[in-house]
Design brief:
The protein is an alpha/beta fold and about 350 residues long. The chain is about 45% helix and about 15% strand. The strands form 3 sheets. Strands 1-2-3-5-8-9-10-13 form an 8-stranded parallel β-barrel, surrounded by 5 helices. The mean pLDDT is about 95.
Length: about 350
């Protein structure tokens, strides 16, 4: 099993330990480091800034939002970074949600699966640089069919370092997971739980079975792991560190009825608890939303507690569809956890 780590998007500023995390990941010969974005800090700038201090680890975005960049813009950034890193870039893309796409980027959200398929097709055409790009999709057209009429098919001036850069898809629902298995080179999970392994295995199998699928389970990369690993002899104190994030995603990251994170936990068996969390959060009572997150829910998506408990439970995660174990923990524990995974 490969090992990854991640630096999330920022709030008040960059994480104090981000630069050190990249350096440690490179020194420990971890396989991947991922950055993120929402509607604030972007994913590519920190990947370049901190990634420039690395020499071995692969560098990826989990995820680069489709609506933030036209396909050509993302392809340009990825091809440039691929040269600078000598072929260590992974493009991780995802659709985000209607609140962000329509509220932040001012773009329509409908038919995210179809848009994703077209977007990735164009990315691959640009990066391959076999011919000037012509694409006539329902969501993307190159050249643009209106305007002055002077647009013409173009081929990248930059020759690619690699004619194929791995593309991973961030996905939560079964249809999107199946799409990842069909058209992408990997899947960036979020809120993965070993208890849902069979559910995700079935969605992946559906995608692998589709005509023209790029991979089988033997070659496809599934990146994920506990949302956080917290070593603490006090289980409830550890859970308290995670409850606010779960309350935010379940309750506030989306509208009522259109919150993909909420749906993940409902499928996990927490439909009633997720509804209470969302009710409190949307009513502006974040304290009650946080308090409504049960410890068992935390333990389903995180590894918390004494070291012996974590060392025992981590085996459940290793026996899932995951092929790359993503570690999010205190930096002082990263070396020890990597050693545990490499046993």
């Amino acid at each position: 099993m490969k090992i990854a780590t991640t630096v999330g998007y920022w709030s008040s500023g960059p994480p104090d330990d981000a630069e050190e995390l990249f350096a440690i990941a490179d020194r420990l010969r971890l396989d991947q480091v991922w950055t993120a974005e929402a509607y604030g800090s972007d994913a590519w700038t920190p990947l370049a800034w901190w990634g420039s201090r690395t020499s071995h680890v692969q560098l990826g975005t989990a995820v680069s939002q489709l609506s933030a960049r036209p396909p050509a813009t993302l392809a340009m950034a990825a091809m440039t970074m691929d040269h600078l890193t000598k072929g260590r870039i992974i493009i991780g893309v995802g659709t985000s949600n209607p609140q962000v796409v329509e509220g932040w980027y001012g773009q329509p959200y409908p038919r995210p699966l179809a848009r994703t398929r077209e977007y990735i097709e164009i990315l691959r055409m640009i990066i391959a640089r076999q011919e000037p790009v012509v694409y006539h999709g329902k969501h993307y057209q190159l050249p643009y069919p209106g305007g002055t009429g002077l647009g013409k098919p173009l081929r990248s001036i930059l020759h690619p370092y690699r004619t194929e850069i791995p593309i991973y898809l961030g996905a939560e629902g079964p249809k999107n997971v199946a799409l990842a298995a069909e058209i992408a080179d990997g899947w960036n999970t979020i809120f993965f739980s070993p208890s849902m392994n069979d559910f995700y295995a079935a969605a992946l199998a559906e995608g692998f079975a589709r005509p023209g699928a790029r991979h089988s389970s033997a070659t496809f990369d599934v990146v994920g792991g506990p949302m956080r690993i917290i070593v603490d002899d006090d289980l409830e104190r550890a859970a308290d560190q995670i409850r606010p994030s779960l309350a935010l995603y379940i309750g506030g990251m989306g509208a009522r009825g259109v919150n993909y994170h909420h749906e993940v936990f409902a499928r996990m068996g927490y439909e009633a608890q997720a509804a209470v969390i969302q009710d409190h959060y949307l009513a502006g009572d974040r304290k009650s939303a946080i308090a409504a997150v049960p410890t068992q829910m935390v333990e389903d998506v995180a590894l918390i507690g004494p070291w012996a408990k974590i060392a025992d439970e981590i085996q459940r995660w290793q026996e899932t569809v995951l092929t790359t174990f993503s570690v999010s923990c205190n930096l002082r524990d990263l070396d020890r956890i990597a050693g545990l995974l490499r046993r």
